[in-house]
Amino acid sequence: MSPGPRWFRWSVPIFTLVLVVAACGPAATSPAGSAAPPASTAPSAGASESAAAGGSAEPSAVTGATCASGATEVKFWTSHTPPDSDALTNIVNAFNTANADICVKMTIVPGAETDVAKLLTSIRGGVAPDVYMADRFTVPQRAAEGVLAELPADVAGMSNDYLPFAWAETQYQKKTYALPFDTDARALWYNKDLIQAAGEDPAALDISKGPPTIDAVTKMADKISKKDSSGNYDVMGWMPAGPGAGGNPGAFDQGWHYTWGFVNGGNFADLTTCKVTPTDPGVVAGYQFMYDWAKAHDPQKVARWVTTNLPPNPPAAQNPLWTGKLAMSISGDWRIAEAAKYAPTGHYGFTFIPVPKAGDKGATWAGGWSMALIPNSKAQDQAIKFMKYIAGPDGQKVYTKESTHLPTLNALLSDASLFDPLHKQFLDLLPTAKNRPPLPVGAAYWDALTSAQGSVELNTKQPKAALQEVQDAVQPQLDAVGC
Amino acid sequence: MAVAPAAIKPKRLARFRPGAIERRNLRWGLIFISPWLFGFIALGIFPILYTFYLSLTRYSGIKAPTFIGIQNYQRMAADPLFLKAAYNTLYYTLLAVPVGVVVAMVLALAMNRKIREVAVYRAIYYLPSILPVFAISFIFVVLLNPGYGLINWVLSAVGLPSPNWLGDPAYTKLALVMIAQLGAGQFALVFLAGLRGIPVDLYESADIDGAGTWQKFRSITLPMMTPIILYDLIIGLSFGLQVFTSAYIITGGGRTAAGADNSLLTYVFYLYKQAFQFGQMGYAAALSVVMFVVSLILAAAVFRWANSWVFYGGEEA
Amino acid sequence: MATRDLTDTPRPIAAAVPKPPRGLGHILTVSVLPRIILIAAAALFITPFYWMIVSALKSNQELTKFPPSLVPGAWVWQNFVDAVNYIPFGLYAFNSFVITVGITIGAVLSNTLVAYGFSRIRWPGRNAMFYICVATLFLPYPVILVALFDIFGKLPSFGLQGAHSWVDTFLPLIVPAFFGNPFYIFLMRQFMLGIPRELSDAARVDGASEIQTFWKVILPLTKPAIVVVAIFAAVAAWNEFLLPLLYLQDSSKYPLAVGLAFYTSQHDVAYNLLMAAATLVVLPVVVVFLLAQRFFVEGITVGGVKG
After folding, report:
1. Of A2, A18, A313, the CB nearest to C265
2. Hey, are the CB atoms on B68 and A455 less than 8 Å from each other?
3. Which is nearest to C162 in space by CA: A126, A377, A129?
């Protein structure tokens, strides 16, 4: 048993070579080893027309390249990606220009609404951002975890400037942990061309006619749906629920548990008794609708259509609503900006989310984001100044116009210059909008509801049983933290 | 456990005083293994004890841990996703490991034949195993697309059903197993090295005795390979229980959830989500403790089982 | 359980079976059947890479066409240009390189020493200790993930890589490699056990210290195993995904694995661009492997044939 020595003599230098060449070849194209990102390619300011690829090739901050050297740095994180992040970039750049002594560096840190992984890592590494853009309904939970810092009294006193529901979401144990940023509203989007091609009249869905019934929309959609030779869906009439991108549990677009729960008059929590109520009859009815619709359309065939047309982490341009593979979808105001960009020749409209019975009042729900402060910021004053700017009129105006979301500042709701006619209609939905209960387990609740939705839309669990599991899993967590 | 007593020593060392030898050997033995020993204590035992402690707390990773007794374990009992994750992981492991051993063995046996262009095959098999799993997972997302992916096109062309690999909970784990097999080349190489390590004179004397190919495989190759098969099993099991990256990539980084009906929610994926995405370090620690206990039981079981078939080249076990 | 001396050389096993005549059947089993298996397997193993390259060269419309085209209709080389322009490839590759080299050095140093202690020296408790070591092999690393993250988050890094603790530095990735890894210890110990005991005994009789025996007698014979460990460790380090995902937050510190995965979700990258990026990540490794594999394979063959 004496293995050949030649092998060894050759392999060590070769192996070293492998590593050296593999790493150095490409590394030669950038200043090797310097932690500073190559601040080359896209100038971040006003580069949104180059947007499809993301405004910048930099791995770190996408703003701040033009800051004065003595400026105090404020690190700002968002999980938003283009096109929304382009609007944020523009706001940050405007702030930096107006405040030469402060340099806000914005970084895109992707992740789901409820994902706190990178933030946690950065706090533990002592490299946390100063300002963090948090999904507003997760603020109480993050505050309970100690991830967010309480805001000083002058900020906490701004409550009257904002929509009450948005402000309520920033509170935990009567303290303020974030400033509301945008909000949004959901509606039924439809592709007029596909509806016409199927011999139906898109005018039936005009928003002036009030909310359509679920049955009417389903019937119309089934006429639009087309199957290929092997019996699989090629074009879908509508996707009321899920699965989501890549076949994951959840909503295909905005057909969330909350959407159908609210439409059916459901209550998701009782804040006075500090209980989650996923087995509330309205919530169960929402899940029952998702179950029945999936059953009628073959859950496996629906899932196959989704995984075919919407892979995981799909680019916004590839949304089947823009590529002509989907006629109707529950979606939001931000699609106005996308439609203009990704389907400029298409004809789209939107109306109320369909309701169970004719004559029912329309229901939608509003979410939105917020600006939060991370504990132990070394530039707290500058960070708060930036938060007030971006969550104030200056920031919200730009964001409302460019991203077609809705503002949370009362003063801006009546500013006609911010809304084109399409956008205005979403604004008009806002008074009927409900919002998710601001719970200190909001994120965990969302994820449990999403899991349950995944099972229900594949018909692997009955709605009631799936929701009972949500109750059993989340209520103990809520009991542990308290409201 | 029966351990070879250190007292059994070859007679030829008898001229040293046994006590002195033992002390000397103990000293040097400990010196040589000290890197592992230190790591075992500092990066093994201590973190495990610490995990036990954290599992009894509520801890977000930021605020100081709050002691809550066994609440995390009670919560686990009512957590459907915990059971789902455990089921997914066991299902995957029990499928991927035997398949992996067989694939590696077949490739190694085929490569061990005197075939002129064998170097080409070796390169082709080995290459995928040195490439990152995440890249391979991305490729499979494209390959396995139910609508326009290559694999379903081939399947339907030969008249087979074309499943929804990434969206049908019955098939998603098979996709993970397929991805794992691209790493088989590395194990095949280890197997091949083992095959090459079998003394040629064994085969020569078997040839003289007139043994056929199958007999030689059964009575020489297979017994001589059992330690390597055990090694492959051990690595495979440990890898199987840890599977994460491919599931993470296929589900788009778990940004929404972990695959259709959570069928790709592997145990480590769930642990990762709880600890780092949801900031539930205490609960994740409790999940870790359960994984620790199950791993210990599996380890004991495999070694007990292996005693009945592993051939170490000495006396028959 | 019977006591076994693991250092014994294997005994020949003679199977007394009559010798069959060599003819067509022999050629089939020796040459044709293995080739069929080899070629079929090679096709399966190559397909993902072929598809990666082909997809990288397709336009987005062609990528989603059915049936898929086996060769791109129009070769969109621009995809590669776009991918390079959008991805800080060099930076990620450099990070991968630093991490890989650090881990490889640590793995070779520590595992050789530890395996020697577990195989070439007989000391009371050795086997019990080795069983513990092997048992840790069965412990999936994620069991201690949460605790280690918390511990590393408390260790000071003195400003290394701009972080205040080990979190967001390369330290949690590299340092543990210096404390041995049960996989490699197991592998290398198996190898060292195969070296005849008489060699060590002779060295001791000649008055060599344990270190001299290790360095002059055993290490030269162990080189093939060291290479295997170095390769395995390097490859594992290069491919590692979970740990950099956990410990590294600043994307300028990302290695390729995490960098590319995050980049795609961060920058709205279409799948053809993603495939182009994956091709570029894989390409240097493939090229160097193809250049070097002649020696690599020759080494194994020579070692094996010499027996």
Report:
1. A313
2. no
3. A126
Judging contacts by C-beta atoms under 8 Å, the chain B residues touching residue C92 are none
Peptide bond into C67 cis (omega under 30): yes
pLDDT tens-digit series, residues A442-468? 888 988 899 899 999 999 999 999 999
B288·C2 Cβ contact <8 A: no
Residue C247 parent element (H or E): helix C242-247
- Given an 8 Å threshold on Cβ–Cβ distance, is C242 in contact with B268? yes
Q: What whole-number distance in Å separates Cα of residue A311 and Cα of residue A234? A: 15
Reduce the DSSP state of residue C118 to 3 states and report it.
Answer: helix
**Is C249 close to A125, i.e. CB distance below 8 A?**
yes
Q: C296 or B239: which carries more pLDDT confidence?
A: B239
> What length is written for chain C?
307
Is the Cβ–Cβ distance between B123 and C290 less than 8 Å? yes
Which ipTM did the prediction report? 0.79
In angstroms, the Cα distances linking A478 to A76, A181, A464 are 30, 26, 21
pLDDT of residue A308 exceeding 90: no
Nearest residue in chain B measured CA to CA from C231: B130
Taking CB atoms and an 8 Å limit, are A117 and B259 in contact across chains? no
In the stretch 110-149 of chain A, residues with CB closer than 8 A to chain C read 110, 117-118, 121-122, 124-127
Count of Cβ atoms closer than 10 Å to residue A25 Cβ: 15
- Interchain CB contacts (distance < 8 Å): B and C: 392
Write out chain A in H/E/C secondary structure.
Answer: CCCCHHHHHHHHHHHHHHHHHHHHHHHCCCCCCCCCCCCCCCCCCCCHHHHHHCCCCCCCCCCCCCCCCCCEEEEEEECCCCCHHHHHHHHHHHHHHHCCCEEEEEEECCCCCCCCHHHHHHHHCCCCCCEEEEEHHHHHHHHHHCCCCCCCHHHHCCHHHECHHHHHCCEECCEECEEECEECCEEEEEEHHHHHHCCCCHHHHCHHHCCCEHHHHHHHHHHHCEECCCCCEEEEEEECCCCCHHHCCCCCCCCCHHHHHHHCCCCCEECCCCEECCCCHHHHHHHHHHHHHHHHCCHHHHHHHHHHHCCCCCCHHHCHHHHCCEEEEEEECCHHHHHHHHCCCCCEEEECCCECCCCCCCCEECCCEEEEECCCCCCHHHHHHHHHHHCCHHHHHHHHHHHCCEECEHHHHCCHHHCCHHHHHHHHHHHHEECCCCCCCHHHHHHHHHHHHHHHHCCCCCHHHHHHHHHHHHHHHHHHHCC
Dihedral of the alpha carbons of B73, B74, B80, B82, in degrees to the nearest 10: 0
Burial annotation A431-452 (CB, 10 A radius, 16+ → b, else e): ebbbbbbbbbbbbbbbbbbbbb
- Average pLDDT of the residues in A434-444: 86
Helix B80-111, helix B172-181: angle, nearest 10: 30
pLDDT beyond 90 at B128: no
Per the listing, tokens 């010196």 go with: B31
C-alpha distance from C161 to closest chain B C-alpha (Å): 22
CA distance A308 to chain B (A): 5
Q: How far is B167 from chain A (nearest CA, A)?
A: 4
In degrees rounded to 5, what are phi and psi of residue B244?
-150, -55
Mean pLDDT of chain B: 84
Quick one: pLDDT at residue B2? Answer: 42
Helix (H, G, I), strand (E, B) or coil at C173: helix
Is the pLDDT at C10 greater than 80, yes or no? Answer: no
B 26-65: CB under 8 A from A: 58, 60-63
Pair of tokens at residue A300:
């496996």
Nearest-Cα distance to chain B for A303, in Å, is: 6
Check pLDDT > 70 for residue A23.
no
Between strands A326-332 and A369-373, the pairing is unpaired
